[in-house]
Design goal:
Helix content is about 25%, strand content about 30%. It has about 190 residues and is an alpha/beta fold.
Length: about 190
């Protein structure tokens, strides 16, 4: 569900977040309208508002784990974790974490990939939320859920800044987990998630 459908309809913060997302046509390949969130970080207020909306949502849910998906999920998840008193758990691409890891392979619309998490990062019964920048098909978030649940966590919800409504097939891939999205992409004619 989008934030506007869940009590934030007309919230000026959502419009400011949407306005801060820059569209880069035909990047990284023809036909893709890349949703660039880096301008959002250049505006202190918009960045803070983005984090605050997630914090307001998760503050009273007894979340103990905020898992961030590499790489842009890393930009939001630690801030949210600190604000709600939870730990941040990085979910990284294959070979980026030292030490023992557990892995989950997944398919993307353009190939295959893998997420990894440190063994012992999550304990049995901990409540988790998964954070990323953009969701389209739900493949990456689905892999994140599987990793966390394999370690014994209860995934309460998944969240992202941008949700692509025309492409979201996530409900079928998230094993019934709720998906919370702040805004729709700007000028959708394609999208990219690296």
């Amino acid at each position: 569900m989008f934030a506007a459908e869940n009590g934030l309809k007309g919230d000026p913060r959502l419009e400011a977040i949407s306005d801060a997302i820059r569209v880069i046509p035909h990047f990284p390949k023809p036909g893709i309208m890349f949703q660039d969130i880096t301008p959002l970080f250049l505006n202190h207020k918009v960045f803070k508002d983005t984090v605050d909306i997630f914090v307001e949502r998760y503050r009273d849910m007894a979340i103990s784990v905020v898992a961030g998906i590499e790489a842009r999920g890393f930009m939001f998840a630690p801030c949210i974790a600190l604000a709600i008193g939870a730990k941040f758990v990085p979910l990284r691409k294959r070979g980026k974490l030292p030490g023992k890891v557990i892995s989950e392979a997944y398919e993307l619309e353009y190939g295959k990939d893998c997420l990894e998490m440190h063994v012992g990062a999550v304990q049995q019964g901990e409540k988790a939320v998964v954070i990323d920048d953009l969701v389209a098909t739900g493949g990456t978030i689905s892999a994140a859920i599987k990793l966390l649940e394999c370690a014994g966590a209860e995934v309460v919800e998944c969240a992202c800044v941008i949700g692509v409504p025309e492409l979201i097939k996530a409900e079928n891939r998230l094993n019934g987990k709720a998906l919370y999205m702040l805004v729709e992409p700007n000028e959708v004619q394609g999208y990219c998630r690296s």
